[in-house]
Amino acid sequence: MPGSPKQQQLAGDDSAGKRKPDDATIDIDNESSNAAKRIKDDSSAQANIKNIQPQKQQQQYLREADVGITEFVTPGWGGFDAIIKHRFSDFFVNEIDRAGRVEHLTSYTDAVDPEPPATEEEKEIEQLGVPDDPQEAFEQGIARLEGILGKADSARIRAHLEITERQTLEERSLLIDHELSKDERKQVYFVTNNFIPVRLTCETVEGKLKFIRRNINTESDKEAEDSRSKQNKKQQQQQARRRGRGSQWRHIGDYCHFVMQKENHDTMDVLNQIARHLRISSRSLGVAGTKDKRGITVQRCSAYRVDHGRLIWASKKLRGARLGNYSYAASELKLGDLGGNQFRIILRHVEGADAESLAPVLEGIRATGFINYYGMQRFGTQSISSHAVGVAVLKADWQGAVDLILKPRPGDRKEVRDARDTWYQTNDASAALKLLPQRAALAEYSILQAFAKNGGASNAASAFAAIPRNLRLMYVHAYQSYIWNSAVSERIRLYGVDKVVPGDLVIKAHELSTADSDESEASEGPEEVCRAVPTLVTKDNISEYSIYDVVLPLPGWAIKYPEHEVKGVYVENMEKDGLSASGLDRHPLKEYKLAGAYRHMVIKPRVFSHEWMRYNDDMQPLARSDSDAIEGKHEPESIDFGQHVALKLAFDLPSSAYATMLLRELMRQETAAGHQTKLSSKTGLRVIPSDSCLGCQQT
Asked: What is the DSSP letter of 467?
């Protein structure tokens, strides 16, 4: 296929269907291994830090080849240049639920708000039909007491209540010695509380019913009584509802579900904001998946026994997010409770491609798909990968893990760089902590905070444990992802990507639930046992499967490995890192005992469409969000003869698939954040770099 000189050059460099690693690429795994060895050879914590000195020639950011991403489904296409995520509003994600419905924010206030069902007490009051008129309610109350106590005692109560002069408490008390069962006494209380609550109270004293009349002897007293009677009835109904609050939630559902749109914020950051405003635990809030920070994302959330009115109030106070579309359900949302994600992505400053040259490539991706690699978000954005830290964690080398996380590296934000340098030069955790913004580098902040609290850097295990659990697990899951990426690349180099071969493992797509995929393991914990059982491909059953059924395992103690040469990739790569596949269940801490999971090798987008646009202003949005639609804003349109060209893509992917890997197949361009920043600088644009915290990922 003819293309621009840029395309032909790329095609010549990439004719084998894979990108050659950059000459500046360093061996991340060897760096981790060497660092760990130096640590073990030195007993001083201060010396440990000093021994791991920044390399002068160290690359500034992680590259695809560093994490096993090298192959393509369709070799030969030269690709084109464009800028991914120039603005966060160039990247839209809408969650898809298990039923295939795309989540959208369509209203800030609308709610499917069923009226809480009446409690048993309210139902009884409703059935009794207590009149609003106090005198009428009084007559009915006396009649009901006659049915319970008899005509004589009810007449005594009537005569007692008709006294108008003020009297002492003793004079206003009437004792009735009437043998009643517990249920009959309960009926008496019910009548006095609901039919004549203002004029009479009742209690049991030494087995006798004691009726106490209230003092009412003026016209104004009677008017006040009538008013209090009406108010009391309303209050009693409200109290009855409060007493039945638990049953109310059981009837309408314990969980308020709502849709959240966030912009350029982490999912957990917004959930923590909601929890702070409502003064509830963040554990009361649930989501089906965590979304990319740098983008506009829409997803469903749940809140345990929180009225939607409170969420409407909290929504107005949130930074970078809005809530809406409230409803109630019996169950909470858990990580993995989704069917996928719908993406809308805008590629700006497209060069080296046009509608004619790109049409067959777009059709090829629609028809054949792309390699289901773990994207660069899984491994962090800088030169030290999350998976290098994961190696140290799996070895229980806590000092090595801590040193890698705190190690100075190029590409840091100024405040993060200053904090790392201060720690490296002085080993003073308190001084470094003062320079470090918590939200920009959570892992580093947690470690330094633990060191400062403990008065030194001697207990690395305790400091690493101070990192939030989900982030700690990201390191080991990043290592699993690195091994998986490397194994997939070798599988494609050995056997191609167009056919199933004997020794492959296969699972039909509909049989591999989210609970058996990598997302469940990353979310629910490594002790979760994979329930999917793959089939081994043989000469006898090979015709029953396609390349889209082929899976490869993430290493763990509960999975099977393919029975061909690719199995050796797992063994060889893990041995190089000082680990073994059979030893992943022997970690001293349970949370790092990896069970493993399966992931499909090649996937196709479920829906795939595109649109070309011309525009002039790089700061103007080229698509509208759900909140824009609510506020009446129009969808941006292409400008005739606009200065710049953009390509808008829309597609659906299963959960845990990375949209950037589809873009990589299309563009043949490095998807690392650092590379995108370089492209931006060449065109005179400014792309905000990703956070420096290791382990950032998208699900």
From this structure: S
Determine contact, residues 388/28, Cβ cutoff 8 Å.
Answer: yes
Q: Among residues 292, 397, 516, 652, which one is catalytic?
A: 292
Closest by CA to 663, choosing from 610, 621, 613, is: 610
Separation of alpha carbons 569 and 577, rounded Å: 12
DSSP state of 93: E
Interatomic CA distance for residues 678 and 681, integer angstroms: 5
CA geometry: angle at 88 spanning 86 and 93, to 5°? 120
Q: What is the pLDDT of residues 262-282, one digit of tens each?
A: 999 989 889 989 999 999 998
Alpha carbons 96 and 100: distance in angstroms, whole number: 6
Instruction: List Cα–Cα distances, 384 to 20, 398, 413, 695, in angstroms.
Output: 20, 16, 15, 10
Active site residue 292: yes
Determine contact, residues 278/314, Cβ cutoff 8 Å: yes
* CB 252, CB 308: distance < 8 Å: no
Which pairing describes strands 505-506 and 550-554: parallel, antiparallel, or unpaired?
A: antiparallel
Q: Write out the two tokens for 579.
A: 């680990």
**3-state DSSP call for residue 612?**
strand
The alpha helices in 52-108, defined as continuous H runs, are: none
Token pair in block for residue 429: 């955790």
How far apart, in whole angstroms, are the C-alpha atoms of residue 330 and residue 515?
Answer: 21
pTM: 0.71
Write out pLDDT tens, residues 54-109: 444 456 678 899 999 999 998 778 889 999 888 889 999 999 999 999 999 999 98
HSE value, Cβ hemisphere, 13 Å, CA-based, for 373? 31
| CA 619-644-691 angle, 5° bins | 45
